[in-house]
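Apologies for my clumsy wording, but are you able to produce some protein sequence, whichever is easiest, and the tokens describing how it folds?
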Amino acid sequence: MFSGLRHKKSFLLIRNLIAVEVIAYGLFMLVALSADWAEAYSRFGVSDYLSFTVLEFTSLAMVQIAIVVFVVTRSFREDRDIKEIIRSGEDERLEFKTSLRWDVRRNEISKELERSAMKTVAAFLNSDGGNLVIGVDDEQRAVGLAADINSLNKKSHDGFENHFNNLFISMLGPEFRQYVRLSFHTLDDKSVSLVQVDRAHRPAYLKTEKGEDFFIRTGNATTALKVSQVASYISAQWQ
């Protein structure tokens, strides 16, 4: 599991490096061809000691080194950021879920756990947004996603994200997916998922077997509003 995440992060890191390098080199060549810089450089006295070609390639090398440092540093900072998020503890904009679908106590898939995760996402959509961290327990300890992923047909992070998307679309609707970003991180050598949710521009209802429910965040809890409360809440928040 952890090895798979490292391979994926390494692939993304290399991909980002290549993409940025290509863009940087293209810009460098565009600037280089935009004027006769060699002639302009020859006017300075330093040209007697340092050729323009050496200066040109040295500048390109320095830019490339700076790009590598930036991309690699940013990659490591992402894992530090997840630790900072978790350290703050559950509140109105943060909730932990040990699992997306696997009930460890009963050792089986739980539809209720899936609904609980989507319920939290719905509440964030209807409030001020927030972060749902899957694979972390209430004591802020990393549990990981191994049990969840092993319960899927496609046993990978892509399989986990696909299942999350299917749950989201079936329970909340595809129109709200634009407000949600899912990413994977490592915490204490275990893989966890960070679901970042923005406030939606209109009310989001959670579909159930009996109809639809409306949830909001109240403190560090997810609360279902009564039918008589929903209209006034929507009026105050979106109208």
